[in-house]
Specification:
- The protein is α+β, with helices and mostly antiparallel strands and 110 residues long.
- The protein has a single domain, classed as 2-Layer Sandwich (HIT family, subunit A), CATH 3.30.428.10.
- The chain contains two helices and five strands, in the order αβββαββ.
- It has helices at 7-14, 57-73, and strands spanning 17-21, 24-28, 36-42, 79-82, 98-102.
- The radius of gyration is 13 Å and the shape is globular.
- The model has no long low-confidence stretch (mean pLDDT 92).
Length: 110
């Protein structure tokens, strides 16, 4: 059961979606780290990527396809995809989400 005050549950229901399909939405990050910085959010609440096994296999596949489709829709050919897991991994909102960054050469992690 999701926390009643989950920000991403609310944004998945009511946010300004740049892309949406089949249980997943994409929204703009409010503090972008690249010219294109989108958050890919499953509508269904799952706290963290550690719990990705809660998704049915077909649902997990659709999530990955949605991520790739969102990048194409955003006009990105080269991009970075990040999922932060747990506080030590930089996760600050405990609703699984992917950061899709692109639109410029991204430094670091070479």
């Amino acid at each position: 059961m999701p926390p009643e005050d989950c920000l991403f549950c609310r944004l998945a229901r009511e946010g300004d979606h740049v892309h949406a399909a089949d249980g997943f939405v994409a929204i703009r990050d409010i503090a972008p780290k690249a010219p294109t910085h989108l958050l890919i959010v499953p509508v269904r609440h799952v706290d963290t990527f550690r719990e990705v096994g809660l998704f049915e296999p077909n649902e997990a596949k659709r999530m990955l396809e949605f991520v790739a489709e969102t990048a194409r829709e955003a006009g990105l050919e080269d991009y970075r995809l990040i999922v932060n897991v747990g506080p030590g991994g930089g996760q600050t909102v405990f609703h699984l989400h992917w950061h899709l960054l692109g639109g410029a050469s991204l430094p670091g992690f070479e």
